């Protein structure tokens, strides 16, 4: 059995602080990563100016969340990836998503 891994979203070279890793151009961060169901994504950000919203692929592409989307707003969100396929996350605050605050967690 493989142990779940933990990924701090946005850390590429250790240069971000814990409070601002989920930031603009985060979509680049996930491009070279492959995730497994059970892995944990940690989103660190300032909750007064950003959020994390779980969306489907269409929501990811259009930067729009459905009315029943799960919204995280703690600033230190730990989200375990479910089984069943890729996961998508965006920030729905202002133009965050359009500015790159979105990631696709592609599974093997």
UniProtKB/TrEMBL annotation:
One of its GO terms (molecular function) is electron transfer activity. One of its GO terms (cellular component) is plasma membrane. Residues 5-108 form the Phytocyanin domain. Pfam families: Cu_bind_like. CDD domains: Plantacyanin. PANTHER family: BLUE COPPER PROTEIN, OS06G0218600 PROTEIN. This is Phytocyanin domain-containing protein.
């Amino acid at each position: 059995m493989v142990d779940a891994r933990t990924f701090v979203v946005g850390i590429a070279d250790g240069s971000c602080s814990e409070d601002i890793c989920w930031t603009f151009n985060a979509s680049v961060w996930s491009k070279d990563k492959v995730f497994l169901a059970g892995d944990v994504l940690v989103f660190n950000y300032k909750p007064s100016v950003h959020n994390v919203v779980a969306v489907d692929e269409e929501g990811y592409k259009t930067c729009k969340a459905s009315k029943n989307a799960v919204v995280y707003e703690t600033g230190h969100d730990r989200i375990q990836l479910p089984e069943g396929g890729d996961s998508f996350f965006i920030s729905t605050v202002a133009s965050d998503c359009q500015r790159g605050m979105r990631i696709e967690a592609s599974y093997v």
